[in-house]
Amino acid sequence: MREIIIEEQDGRASFESLYVRRANYYETDKMGIIHHSNYIRWFEEARLHYMEEMGWPFKKVETAGIIIPVLSVDCQYKSMVRYDDIVDIYTKITKFSGVKMNIAYRIVDSETGELRCTGGTSHCFLNMDYKPVRMKREYPELYELFMSHVAVE
Question: Residue 127 and residue 112: Cα distance in Å, rounded?
């Protein structure tokens, strides 16, 4: 478990998760760099890793009857990642209303610290019938957990 406290404000800790990943050969394009579509997959891997760190792996969330679909994805490419590079993917929850959630990502080169990519995803919470879930009322424990992890800006 590698959770990093990044800031404390008003007595509240703000968390950012670190997920370390090696770029695979099959993820490269003809130019020998990681194809742009893979960054979105890496965001998902990092997000699932963060939920595991929080003590609520995605399997547990789904078993509780909740699904968290992606509503939107945003990605800005800053510099190239190549085969066998190791990157650090920092993930933090930037907004959580109990119905929707926004997550921010930063991908940096593990060795140099150079910024490779930034991005974000937005999500909602649905039950297995695809109806919105009001986390505060229906899953108060999980609501409080998410609220405790919202980044202090």
Answer: 43
